[in-house]
Amino acid sequence: MPETKSALRLSCITKEYPLVRANDCISFDVRWGEVHAVVGENGAGKTTLMKIVYGMVRPDAGEIFVDGRRVEIHSPSDAIRLGIGMVHQHFMLVDVFTVLENIVLGQEPKRGGGLDLEAARRSVRALLEEVGFELDLDARVEELPVGLQQRVEILKTLYRKARILILDEPTAVLTPQEASELFRFLRGFVARGNTVIFISHKLAEVMEVSDRVTVIRDGKVVGTVETPKTSIAELARMMVGREVILTVEKRPATPGEPLLVVEDLWVEEAGKKPRVAGVSLSVHAGEIVGIAGVEGNGQSELVEALTGLRPYRGTVRYEGEVILRPDARRVREHRVSHIPEDRNARGLVLDFTTRDNIILGDHYRPPFVDRYGFFRDPAIDEYARGVVETYDVRPRSIRLSARHYSGGNAQKIIVGRELYRKPRILIAAQPTRGVDIGAIEFIHKQIVEARDQGMAVLLVSADLNEVMSLADRILVMFEGKIVGEVRPEEATEEKLGLLMAGVTEAATA
Ligand SMILES: Nc1ncnc2c1ncn2[C@@H]1O[C@H](COP(=O)(O)OP(=O)(O)OP(=O)(O)O)[C@@H](O)[C@H]1O
Ligand SMILES: [Mg+2]
């Protein structure tokens, strides 16, 4: 039976970093023909392990077997030669190249001395046919939505004949539809005898797509279970080591005065369709207003306008005041906090320490500087430690540089920074992206508590579950406009899904 043969066997893989042992003698087996999920808390060591398998990180000790044979993997090209492909969370495509160019980059068929793009086109076409993807090979990558960019990444690995495909949090940036298309592909891929290693914090997806799950905690394997014999609750317990409450507990909102009022806001670029086309909304003290929508329908631009990062036309009142020449600093001084959607571009300075990232944006003001403008280091340290402890940032250092945190812990630093300063208004985009289930529970609780103390929250999330469970009112955004408002108790995925696709009649009928 080929299905039960070992595709990849890890034997006591160990990797030590200065502050943590990221992988502590990890051993498990992945079979041909299965989707094998790897789950664990933020910082458990999943990405490190996969980078070791893909040759990007050297382990201190341990052995890797592919197809039963001991192998040495010193670089990604070694991994590729062994049939291992990896799709990273941050895509590594060349934006200005076409889909075809990106797929064949580095492996172009040559004819004479030149490049034979037509031969490449034929073989990529055949590949598309085989896996059932539709993709315009001549489109420039920068013009594609993320779901399609991910397909390009996948095709790139298949073009290099990957038989073991590693996906590190592939659905974090996908819409529910894109995610189910990805799953259909993955099931077909393993049905042809290949193997998928699937890392995700979304346990419902893990239950849906995987055959077996290996749980990692603190760099060690807790166990491998067969998916049909486990449950979300059991996986959560194995990951976190305690029971996790999976639903948000909150009382009905008691909204106060309007704190954020937006009137007829437009974001436009010359010669292009308006990104935000006349949005009006208000968020009151003590309420959470959710914005649901397929990514790319103006939510990002709306958030950037409201946080002073992008020029707009229209009126925005913060606590009743219009800010003259708004920029990020002035908006922030009005006790507006912002959790940005792209944590690496906007949220953190990767070469700064935790501590410096935590005061970023307020660093020029008391209590962080004295009246002569000098930094008050003890006050800064104490504050940073408060954030790191409260938000369970691991490792617990305030001096590690931001780039050395796992994805979820980096997110916790940002959420902690933005909430710890006790804002009046919180504008949160994808606040729990990449965060583990225990940390989501905690962040949601913090947001609800701050709401109950009178904070106004505007929540933008691609995660419908998050919007439905947190928001007190849900607005749906489509092509730059608010196309509907739904009360959470009346919201269903179908109803929101239709509105998100621009179908207003059917959804409101
Ligand atoms: N280059 C590095 N230098 C120092 N520490 C590192 C480095 N890379 C990773 N680590 C540490 O190793 C541990 C494991 O990180 P890893 O990224 O593997 O976690 P993860 O399980 O992928 O978490 P997440 O779910 O948040 O993505 C973390 O504590 C992280 O801070
Ligand atoms: Mg990771």
What does this structure look like?
With about 500 residues, this protein is of the alpha/beta class. The chain has 18 helices and 22 strands. The protein folds into 2 domains: about 1-240, P-loop containing nucleotide triphosphate hydrolases (Rossmann fold, 3-Layer(aba) Sandwich), CATH 3.40.50.300; about 245-335 and about 465-509, 3-Layer(aba) Sandwich (Rossmann fold), CATH 3.40.50.300. The strands form 5 sheets. A 6-stranded mixed β-sheet has the order 6-9-10-3-11-12, with helices on both faces. The mean pLDDT is about 90. It binds adenosine-5'-triphosphate (ATP) and magnesium ion (MG). Adenosine-5'-triphosphate binds near residues 20, 48 and 409.
Q: What Rg do the Cα atoms give?
A: 24 Å
Q: What is the helical fraction, as a range of percent?
A: 25-40%
Corresponding CATH superfamily of the largest domain = P-loop containing nucleotide triphosphate hydrolases
How many angstroms does the end-to-end distance come to?
54 Å
Q: How many β-strands, per DSSP?
A: 22
CATH architecture of the largest domain: 3-Layer(aba) Sandwich
Mean pLDDT over all positions: 91
Q: Per CATH, what is the topology of the largest domain?
A: Rossmann fold
The number of helical segments is: 18
Structural class estimated from helices and strands = alpha/beta
Low-confidence stretches: none
Write out key terms for the chains shown:
alpha/beta, 2 domains, binds magnesium ion, 509 residues, globular, Rossmann fold, 6-stranded mixed β-sheet, 18 helices
